[in-house]
Protein 1
Amino acid sequence: MDTRLGEYVDEFTRRDWQTLDPDAVDEPVRIALVGLGWFSREWALPGIERSAFTEATVVTDIDADAVDEVASETDLTGVTPEAFRAGEVAGEYDAVYVATPNATHLEYVEAAAEQGKAVLCEKPMEASADRAESLVEVCADAGVPLMVGYRMQTDPVVRRLRDLLDAGFVGDPVHVHATMSQTMLGELTGDPDQWRLDPDLSGGCALMDIGIYPLNTTRFVLDADPVAVSGTTRTEHEAFAGVDEHADFRLEFPDGVAAMCTVSQNAAHASRLEITGTEGRLILDPAFYEREERELAVERGGVRMDVEVDPVHQVEEEFAYFGHHLLTDTPIYPDGRHALIDSRVLEAIYESAETGEVVQLTE
Amino acid sequence: MDTRLGEYVDEFTRRDWQTLDPDAVDEPVRIALVGLGWFSREWALPGIERSAFTEATVVTDIDADAVDEVASETDLTGVTPEAFRAGEVAGEYDAVYVATPNATHLEYVEAAAEQGKAVLCEKPMEASADRAESLVEVCADAGVPLMVGYRMQTDPVVRRLRDLLDAGFVGDPVHVHATMSQTMLGELTGDPDQWRLDPDLSGGCALMDIGIYPLNTTRFVLDADPVAVSGTTRTEHEAFAGVDEHADFRLEFPDGVAAMCTVSQNAAHASRLEITGTEGRLILDPAFYEREERELAVERGGVRMDVEVDPVHQVEEEFAYFGHHLLTDTPIYPDGRHALIDSRVLEAIYESAETGEVVQLTE
């Protein structure tokens, strides 16, 4: 009997990176959460709790009410940002998750590094490539591990897509299309995420906040980095004055593979990654949002398979990976050096949008 | 009872352009076919015969065997290209369908115009914008109607998609993605279509032959023309030496609407058009090939409808439109002036691929 498909299906959601038995973990990595926006509360906190390798112990935010609320609902220690940075409860955590507005990541990472704590920093790593580079250096100098929160990279569906590409399932990749959009004002009205409209805090809007998904996920699955980029940004709605409401960009990877990407903070919901190769296609749709049940379509030689998977909790997987790798002292893949390339590419796309020119990234 | 959906469904495939009762047509437009490649034989001939407004009467090709074969299988008059151009059987047809290699369209259209015959010319209209312009002028000077063979424009699914956009169903269009690819060498081995590999005959390969579908269909459904374009072409396989095997391009429409397009003559089959607006999305997948059963997905406000339609014979619809409009003396929409814009845009994309610069099309 041919068991190949059976084995493939059974192993589809395996954690290919896991060497430590979750049941054998007595002392999970204790995490301090910095920043209590909706993603932290709705996704990161539950993700940390679900993961066998992590537990949340401390929370902080500039919004004292939010800290009180979370602390009173849980057994977490709530502190002010000042107390956190001063290390007043540093004995209560081993690692720090930073999910504040982009331009404030550095200050919290500096504090964590000074305290000798490992860091999981949200993406984009900072509001500019220069600040992102400082952030990487701070962690390197302090000798603390730094992971960047690319939750797509630890999603098993995305990892299987990458495996297929790596195994040559579609031949040589030729073209990539990626689109991701949402109605930020409509979906998130009244939410503290409105800091994304402040260029000083965010460093940009559609491209910084959303563009990083098509960019990083394409890099991850192709296992390659762009060599040239071009792009355009556009703002029509007055709420987006000073930042980019819509953006499109083209990433050129080695061998001329082109990724055509569009993102928007003010368009109907879209979420799709599509790779066409010389011999087949791989389509992830929906692709990028944490709340979506990702579906993978696999096409080759007239055969199409649609793979629907019981969704993992994407942020649990991310924190499990982080905790697991700290406990096993294993190098982390989406690290600062990896994330720094995104910061530079995003900056190059903004530059291209200003000048109308292609920006070469090879030196 | 709410009959809105019922009426919509019932009228979905209606010919919104048809004013003449097909059953009332005694004398359909008699068509001479020039060029007997696989598309002419497999699609155009049956399309002409199926349409109540047209009938095929004459065939010609530089391949005398092909002419003999078709003439012996049917009751059509087969003639040599020389005899055709000399008008030897001009009394047997009212209109001429030109489906020869791109760079030879002009000579046959000149003959047809001289004979006072209406013309349906395959797309791209010619191998260069200059020759395309001459072709348009030849017809204008002779006062003969000229239609260009954009079979997507008379497909009811495409027309309904256009209606929805026009009615504001998705709000303002924001981004378009289009992809179309095939393995030309594999799918068409031994076929006379290999003239597409000869730049003198074709004027280009992936972009000219395939790129025109995303380009023209996007123009048609948005009812707008690009104001700026950029693009890249690439050739890896030796069989494509001298022409473009792969291409990607960005079309910028008025108001900054961006269409991101990829095409290939040597990649896995893909065929998709996707429009994201401020309030919804319209997705045609498969979209572009004559043999596909087009499916339209309509998304707005959390509702998604998938529309599958009994496929029309796309080339029947095209010839029915052509014949109908000649019989009723009605202006033809995809005319030479319309097609000339595609020729200029394609040339601008090739220029951009050479220079790496964006080419502005507004003057």
Protein 2
Amino acid sequence: MAVISLSRRLRRTAFSDGVEAAGVKGYTVYNHMLLPTVFRSIEEDYHHLKTAVQVWDVACERQVELRGPDAGRLMQMLTPRDLRGMLPGQCYYVPIVDETGGMLNDPVAVKLAEDRWWISIADSDLLFWVKGIAYGYRLDVLVDEPDVSPLAVQGPLADDLMARVFGESVRDVRFFRFGWFDFQGRSLAVARSGYSKQGGFEIYVEGSDIAMPLWNALMEAGRDLDVHAGCPNLIERIESGLLSYGNDMTRANTPHECGLGRFCNTQTAIGCVGRDALLRVASEGPLKQIRPVAIEGGPVPPCDRPWPLMDGQLQVGQVTSATWSPDFETNVAIGMVRITHWEAGTDLDVVLPDGTVRPAVVNGVFWN
Amino acid sequence: MAVISLSRRLRRTAFSDGVEAAGVKGYTVYNHMLLPTVFRSIEEDYHHLKTAVQVWDVACERQVELRGPDAGRLMQMLTPRDLRGMLPGQCYYVPIVDETGGMLNDPVAVKLAEDRWWISIADSDLLFWVKGIAYGYRLDVLVDEPDVSPLAVQGPLADDLMARVFGESVRDVRFFRFGWFDFQGRSLAVARSGYSKQGGFEIYVEGSDIAMPLWNALMEAGRDLDVHAGCPNLIERIESGLLSYGNDMTRANTPHECGLGRFCNTQTAIGCVGRDALLRVASEGPLKQIRPVAIEGGPVPPCDRPWPLMDGQLQVGQVTSATWSPDFETNVAIGMVRITHWEAGTDLDVVLPDGTVRPAVVNGVFWN
């Protein structure tokens, strides 16, 4: 196992001191920033996430802030999702595509006000695209990366922990909505969202100076709830079918191939970049699409490259995320499968990097 | 020491099989791709780089290709360096700035033809910015990431090794020029360039299928030259004053602050984004600038965050890269220092993350 060589370029976060004190054992890099991957073991973290509550440093979900008279126009240019009905206080999952309809990012848009938005991004420098578009169209809008560091509180006991720190009314925040809650005199946006299916919140911590005080307050308040430092968990996120930009989809894919067609209103999203390119696939559907895939046999190795999915000698897709699931006692995986082979129950073979071949089955639904 | 968690999102390169077989021990992530950081030890790699020849997987220097009638116009929009005199066959180091004059990348532009360029990028998704500008200005140009993987051959014996694989005429390639050389029937651009001051070449390997054949051919041909797999070396690059985007400079810095004023022709680079913002700093000079800094005492820890440079209680700069140099028997460092304190010989203090304070001196020149 190779170590990660630290440098300023792999940015520490406002919570890194807490993460280190909690004994982080592995990292990935996400938006040029450190993202923890494991604390005790991936499997131990997984069981704990499903039964208790965890605090996650997801500061790497950087924000792209749009501010000014053209902020709303620019936001609609970025996504084929129709934003006309969206209100301040709402969060929308928005595919962002380039002029060819290829995915550039799959962030959550946070509408703070009619003229102010945060885009909470996946792993690509979306800021560069947004700045380029704003400049090219001479829009009257400021585009920048603010000092905002998301902190996630995830797990079945998340509501209890959050209520102790932010008050009982935090329980009333609805899914993909956010409210403003006070912490040490600072008003913070708290959304019911997060990269797990175990329930919980994301706190948009504005101002690095209160990051560690908040981290410590959550750890202190949750001691009897068995709160632990955690992180997005590979097993849980695959079981839950939570896609990962760069893993399960890239710029080569349309939103429809990623199963995100329900977030595209290509006809009505007037002014959206990539609209022309997406109209046909929006009406006819894609030729390949993301599917849950179960891989037979014992635990597979880390999926560090696409694994071909075969029907005999014919490649009909690829697996892009995979791991052993202790709860479901199979290898759970996410794959992109051709239309001819994507029906639930289809038997395929997957070829691992060492050349071994494993039976695999296309599933109808994800596990969680 | 934390491990790096591998996933498809941290892309393998066309040379990863060779890198693994050579026993890579550490990685960083660069342009969403694995970049080796150490093979035997950083110090052993360093001594070897200075005396023999190494083959480096720098495929993470991804290319942004510009192709079409507006390619030249777009290229000039991207940089304050005047490109009018540049000929096909030349490489230019080009600062790329946004509309505020902030650095977005510090790549090498490779002019293949009047209407075809590669931009060999540092660690940011420059593709997104270039695509945004091209779209916003409705330019007649294709912008994409081609299947081109740079492989560097660096060290004092680089000419000898390259001549064995590409023929004697490769010795005639001049600094920051490239020529076309044949390998297994494929014509490859070979430039005299690279991220060390030990001399050598970068081969723009077009087509992943010939990547490992070339890697193996170089390893085979150089056996008696003691060729080894290597990588950009932290010690050598700091001694040589080779800047690293994301470490020594960010979007917060102008090219002039980075000492790259000599690559800016802000008056004559007509059409360049950020020209207005840079005109004043181009004529008056910056308020802070990158300097070599020597830090006294024994080896410093890894520089994973900016270290404040102090004059008493006053912060006058920061160190952004630092390491112990065996050859110069001091800690070599790169810092950004205010105009009031940047003269060679200025005595400062540097504050390490654990709170300890070390004497530091601003140097007049880098070490190599």
